[in-house]
Amino acid sequence: MTFSIAELFSKHAPEKFSLHEQYLNNQMVRVLKTIGYDRTYIRAMGQYLYDDKGDKYLDLLSGFGVFAIGRNHPTVIKALQETLTLELPNLVQMDVSLLSGLLAKKILETTADNLEKLFFCNSGTEAVEAAIKFARYTTKRERIIYCEHSFHGLSLGALSLNGEVIFREGFGPLLAHCDAVPFNDLEALEKALRSKEVAAFFVEPIQGKGVNIPDDNYLPEVERLCKKYGTLFVADEIQTGLGRTGKFWACEHWGVKPDMLLMAKALSGGFIPIGAVAMTTRIMDTVFNRMDRAVVHGSTYGKNNMAMAAGLATLQVIEDEKLVENSAKVGIKIIDGINAMTANYQFLQEARGKGLMIAIEFQSPKSLSLKAAWMMLEAANKGLFCQMITIPLFKEHKILTQVAGHGMNVVKLLPPLNLTAKDSHDIINAFDKTIADTHQIPGSIWDLGKTLAGHGLKNKTTNK
Ligand SMILES: Cc1ncc(COP(=O)(O)O)c(C=O)c1O
Fold it and tell me: What is the pTM of this model?
């Protein structure tokens, strides 16, 4: 019998949700059904998803930032098909591969000149794990400092650098000697570093949860303080990297040079999981300092040919299609377009962001009748108001978005970087209409709010 994936789809398509209910995480299916996101997508291309009803959705979530170059990009597909048909020797292990050398060289051409070496792994959280180990070994110190509300992944080491109770609860004990400081607080950081016991400070240049942008002097001062106290400065660019913020690396906005720079997500081209740590020669040469330590850290699948080919093709697409420039240009249009509405809508606080990493924050309104409705939702579940934005955006305007974090009234846009001017107009118009509807009390959108409050839905569409 021949094996065919297409045949599996045609035979079993209607079983998608029931299979998940029976064999996988059925809570996810419950969430999707509760908020009406239970669609059957049958195709995806670029920034769009298509369902079996013939509807087209604009995807402003991009698989949590994985599909920066859009879905099913033909250049990456061709690179992967070629890699498969070449019958390459892959993961020989007692060998080194050409494609990993080429990708490392190409990535390091994009980073600041102090970063000269690269380590490959299979995901963002693995990049974080590697950086924790490398920092400890290099500095001979144990303590790690991270920021409140940061997100660095969910394996145990990375989870130890994550301040959100919802993720940590019941999974401890986590790594010892990991402490949080408030983001954008230099005094707290210096206090933490002063003991000269801190191996590394991990920070997202722009925090994914809430899209928090630091003051302009923050990261330059972080770099200076880390140098002063012998602490390694680790920039987690797993979400912000590869053009997301309108620069190739978010660190470029402030001209800072971390000792380690972490990447993953977009580098995959949306196909093959990959993670990487760019680092100084000192760190690489300290960790891998003897022949008997040549494999002291690594992972069986790290540097696999398919991931390397996807990474190389992705970098080519970003360059050819000028996606970094497009991210900056379209991002500003969206932010300005939404900020222009703040005078019309009491619930709308602001849009902020860099490039195509955008937060749209909502607030308690001044007028008494609106305020009472807001309080009702906040009392049921903090941050629930945002679901009254994301759900109509999805159902009525066919735009997929997410809530930016637990317990906050922030909708986050993390779209593919190839958004067009028309897409940006559609987004602004859809927000305009949806936000206007929230100001109609009573109205259908508030009926939805009451239903959600009744479900006790705690921002379950949120993630990173
Ligand atoms: C800033 C940041 N670091 C680390 C991670 C973890 O990456 P992964 O999910 O590939 O393990 C994420 C994922 O959302 C992230 O946004």
Answer: 0.96
Does residue 208 have its Cβ closer than 6 Å to ligand 1? yes
Task: Calculate the average pLDDT of the chain.
Answer: 95
Nearest to 120 by CA among 138, 140, 142, 102: 102
Give me the DSSP letters along 167-233: HHTTS----SSEEEE-TT-HHHHHHHHTTS-EEEEEE-SSBTTTTBPPPTTHHHHHHHHHHHHT-EE
Among candidate residues 67, 120, 236, 271, the one labeled active-site is: 236
Alpha-carbon span 34 to 28, nearest angstrom = 10
Phi and psi based region of residue 196 (left: phi greater than 0; alpha: psi -120 to 50; beta: remaining): left
* Tokens, residue 137: 């070994």
Strands (E), 311-416: 348-354, 357-362, 399-400, 402-403, 410-413
| Residue 69, CB-side half-sphere exposure with 13 Å CA sphere | 27
Whether 151 is a known active-site residue: answer yes
Q: Is 236 a catalytic residue?
A: yes
Residue 265 annotated among the catalytic residues of the structure: yes
Q: Give me the catalytic one of 67, 119, 120, 151.
A: 151
**Given the structure tokens 């009451």, which residue do they identify?**
450
Fold of 39-64+323-455: Aspartate Aminotransferase, domain 1 (3.90.1150)
Between CA 330 and CA 334 the distance in angstroms is 6
Say if residues 264 and 231 touch (Cβ distance below 8 Å).
no
Counting ligand 1 atoms within 8 A of each CB, the residue from 265, 272, 277 with the most, and so the one to mutate, is 265
141 lines ligand 1 (CB under 6 A): no
Rounded to whole angstroms, the Cα distance separating 289 from 191 reads: 32
What would the CATH number be for the domain defined by 74-320? 3.40.640.10
Q: Is the CB of 214 under 6 A from ligand 1?
A: no
All residue ranges of the chain with pLDDT < 50 are: 458-463
Q: What is the pLDDT of residues 406-420, one digit of tens each?
A: 889 999 999 999 999
Report pLDDT for 146.
98
Cα dihedral 316, 322, 327, 332, rounded to 10, equals 170
pLDDT tens digit sequence for 97-115: 999 999 999 999 999 999 9
- pLDDT score, position 377: 86
Domain ranges of the chain: 39-64+323-455, 74-320
